[in-house]
Amino acid sequence: xxxxxxxxxxxxxxxxxxxxxxxxxxxxxxxxxxxxxxxxxxxxxxxxxxxxxxxxxxxxxxxxxxxxxxxxxxxxxxxxxxxxxxxxxxxxxxxxxxxxxxxxxxxxxxxxxxxxxxxxxxxxxxxxxxxxxxxxxxxxxxxxxxxxxxxxxxxxxxxxxxxxxxxxxxxxxxxxxxxxxxxxxxxxxxxxxxxxxxxxxxxxxxxxxxxxxxxxxxxxxxxxxxxxxxxxxxxxxxxxxxxxxxxxxxxx
Length: 252
Description:
The chain is of the alpha/beta class and 252 residues long. The protein has helices spanning 10-21, 37-41, 62-72, 83-107, 109-112, 123-144, 156-165, 181-192, 194-209, 224-232, 236-244, and strands at residues 2-5, 27-30, 51-54, 57-60, 220-221, 248-249.
């Protein structure tokens, strides 16, 4: 089994966590380094990760890969068996893959990209506001189903959220322990899991090497939800400036 990945990608990290939780051995191929683009393009014309190759079958998109792994390797499940709980888990997975991803990835640009500017005025405040809506949604889910979304039995919700939530503090955002005590405790418990600790070490090691790597750090790849969040929050002029300055990569 081969996983086209990048320890920089929260979606690729999500799939790596699932594979490691299920004890499925795999070969990791860095597809986002310039030297890996040709290999990645051969399995995904959009040159996006993750992509899973399993016995000749190619699966693209983290949610599709997660579903494939659940059907093909069901012994250690990551989705609930109860249909209602599964619907809730999929809704939370989608929340992480869309809104949370857009906030964290967009606001992280100034921590790794080759830039001399600052975030547009009001962007970080808008991000914290929208993060609070996500924490509220999670707090409600944890209160309703504490046995289904638990670091003691991690599953798709944990593996979707952790790669994003592990960056919250580093980016200057907060999870108010008074307002969202279960979310705070949930994240702390996830950080203690061996596979999550391994994921963090791997990602931190990668980030140390990023400035000297052959990754693209001047032009930013933009897509649907990440662009939508910028537009909805009034940062369209900044985004248009990026387009006019030719600092944008469009997946094809």
